[in-house]
Amino acid sequence: MRRRRDKYGGHIRHLAYKRLGIFDVEFRAAIKKHGPMETWTDMIFATKIIETVDLAFKTMSPLHPTSKKFLDNAAKYLDCRRQMDAKYAEIDEFQKVARLSVQTDSGGIETDTNDGVEFKQQYQQQATSGEPVHSMEQLYEAANIADPVFKDTVMSLVDRVCNVCGDSRDDLTVKFPPLKGRERAGEKADDDYIHRTPDPAVSWLYDIVRGSIEFSSVDQIAACLEIMKTDDNIHIVKAKNRFAKPGLSGYRDLVFHIQIDTMGGF
Fold this sequence. Notes:
Elements: H1 2-19, H2 24-34, H3 43-59, H4 65-91, E1 110-113, E2 116-119, H5 136-165, E3 173-175, H6 182-192, E4 212-214, H7 218-230, E5 235-241, E6 254-259
Antiparallel strand pairs: 1-2, 3-4, 5-6
Helix pairs in contact: 3-4, 5-7
């Protein structure tokens, strides 16, 4: 993923410096305002580039094929973002979900040291022995034991939300995908956690066991957050409110990584 961003970033620089006539000082100011190269697909900056490229199509020779592909994809993302923003404004006019506070019990999994940032060992994935996992085999052995416990925890949470809100299970949709594929898990470990300490990278994979709840009201979401916050059996390790800070495409959700005890004692 990093290599892909670098490649496209190189073509954006080529367009900006050589083809589109954006002055160096303006280009540097845009980078300073909107972030380093890996965040150049920020909506505002990407829009500016695409609008300039539209003019380039009319006045210059054809763009480099890879540059054109990147910009076409960026334009599609931006169009998706506009549609997603409009849909969210329709269903949550006053942005109540975006204003919901999400809290963790971990206080964050990062810790500052004299050598830089490290991560808290207690939040590495545990093997059935209770020690941090050291292999994909250990990770999936633990995942298979944790999976039914996780599902029971989620369904209990759903029942409690329904009880608080006076709704039925039919008012919510619960999905439990299969365990994350081993090949994809290995790629993610290598791409995202290879330099994380303490190692190994595989011990920081949190989404082998996963599930989702689709709510039908803001009240259900608020009730779920309150129940999770006060449940001693659910330890919230990480949390994100992506209604407050959606991605480039405009996709929004609430994401929680939770720690639960299993019958296996880990």
